[in-house]
Write a structure and sequence with these properties.
By secondary structure, this protein is of the alpha/beta class. The protein folds into 2 domains: 139 residues, Rossmann fold (3-Layer(aba) Sandwich), CATH 3.40.50.2300; 55 residues, Winged helix-like DNA-binding domain superfamily/Winged helix DNA-binding domain (Arc Repressor Mutant, subunit A, Orthogonal Bundle), CATH 1.10.10. The protein contains 10 helices and 6 strands. Strands 2-1-3-4-5-6 form a 6-stranded parallel sheet, with helices on both faces. α3 links the parallel β3 and β4. α3 packs parallel to α4, α7 packs across α9 and α8 packs across α9.
Length: 216
């Protein structure tokens, strides 16, 4: 039986190249492509793929939040992050959201095939560079006092923050999330209160710094 794969990346040329390479392997099959995290969640619910290969920095809904929603709705779908980012915020964010694998786009294609065959058997896979970073961070944590945690945003607040930071109006965000504008205003107020941020420009900077959105 073939492993069914959903490709999630906002660059069409990259998805097409990845599809062509994957389909050279008889045990693998690409069943769908998504250009945003929100589309990926919908397609995962409809197609129920074995694997979702997920970019992180995408418009509308980033890969971390998309992974979290997919794991909540279609837990049988395993997620592999395939990103240009090696920053620990992205790595920890994806694993906390439920991903089982993390590779850099600079990795050899053969490593992605190996990761796919590992993750489909419910085992974790990380590229060597990511593994080195994780071990290094762990070693540093053993010798340092843990810093005070930032205020924790809920998944819905992170989703709202990304959309606002990407320039969508309150009305547009409300329509996209199927709620009232008052609800979005309430979320925005709570976000700023939790983060102790008082201007929208600072809110956007926070979203970029924390990997919720990017300048791409």
């Amino acid at each position: 039986m073939k492993t069914r794969i959903l490709l999630v990346d906002d660059h069409k040329v990259f998805r097409e190249g990845l599809r062509a390479l994957i389909e050279h392997h008889e045990d693998l099959e690409v069943v769908g492509e998504a250009e945003t995290g929100r589309i990926a969640v919908t397609m995962a619910c409809e197609l129920k793929p074995d694997i979702a290969i997920m970019d992180i920095a995408m418009p509308d809904l980033n890969g971390i939040e998309a992974t979290r929603q997919i794991q909540a709705r279609v837990p049988e779908t395993k997620v592999i992050a395939l990103s240009m980012h090696s920053d620990k915020r992205f790595v920890s964010g994806m694993f906390q959201a439920g991903a089982l694998g993390y590779l850099l786009k600079a990795s050899a294609f053969e490593e992605l095939i190996q990761a796919t065959r590992t993750v489909v058997n419910n085992r974790h896979y990380v590229s060597q560079k990511i593994a080195d970073s994780i071990v290094g961070d762990y070693a540093r944590q053993l010798t340092q006092v843990a810093p005070e945690n930032h205020a924790s945003l809920s998944p819905r607040e992170r989703e709202v923050l990304q959309l606002l930071a990407e320039g969508h109006s309150t009305k547009e965000v409300a329509e996209r999330l199927h709620v009232s504008t008052n609800t979005i205003e309430t979320h925005r107020g709570r976000i700023m209160e939790k983060l102790n941020i008082h201007t929208f420009a600072s809110l956007v900077k926070y979203a970029i710094r924390e990997g919720l959105t990017s300048l791409e």
